[in-house]
What does this fold into?
Amino acid sequence: MLRWVACFLAVLAIFAGHRPAAAADTTRVAFEPARIDGYIVTVKANAFASPKWQGAGVMSAIAYPTVSFRKVGEAPKFSSPDDGIGFGLLDNKVFTAGPVFRYVGGRYDGSDKDLRGIHDARWTLESGLFADAWITPNLRARAEIRRGFREKDGFAANLGLDLVNSFNSWTVALGPRLAFGDGSYMRNHFGVTARDAALNPRVYKYRAKSGMKSVGIYASATYKFSDTWSATLHGGYDRLVRSAANSPITARLGSTNQYTVGLTLSYSFPMKGFW
It folds into this structure.
């Protein structure tokens, strides 16, 4: 799994180094605030529904705020709602790379009677690296590799492409997704220990293996009401595969079909420089 992602990151970096920087300008959503010194602050209210736990057949909802900053006069870059939270330390307009963070919800036996006796897969905050490359003015490739802060969390990785188009007040994007996990990650979320099987008769002992976790697709549509307000409707579908799909947790207690749907409201305003 790590070799797949490392190769993908290397290809993005090499390709971006040979791309003309001018092509990147068309990948950005138009937004021209008043020309003043300082920053544009964007506050977002995010709400989405997704599987209650990885492999679950039922969904749960969550809402949370986010905030981002950019310099006045700098057009905002496209980001998909399913991207991790990244900070571009290397950015030549075509290729961007830097640290990335992602919150991963947990699975607890007390939250669902079907899970009684099965070990908890606790929530975690994953950190790692990301890379974006604009292969064409409208086609973005992205890779993330991350690790949770607990030893059993293991490594997770995501690869994706987004075809991005803007017209009138709309920006729409659509593209495929691949997700991977190493042995620790897969055993934590999809493995069944002997103790789990003894306490829950609906499952049997199962050792999940590293590799591809899911294949899917993600789409988003953003409507810009004004220079300050916009709304994004987004959603996706992932199909668990291989070890994740064959796990008795998925096959007997959940589903291989994983859906996500969400809505984001954004408000942007200028602020004088404060650092």
About this structure: DSSP finds five helices and twelve strands in the chain. The longest strand covers residues 257-271.
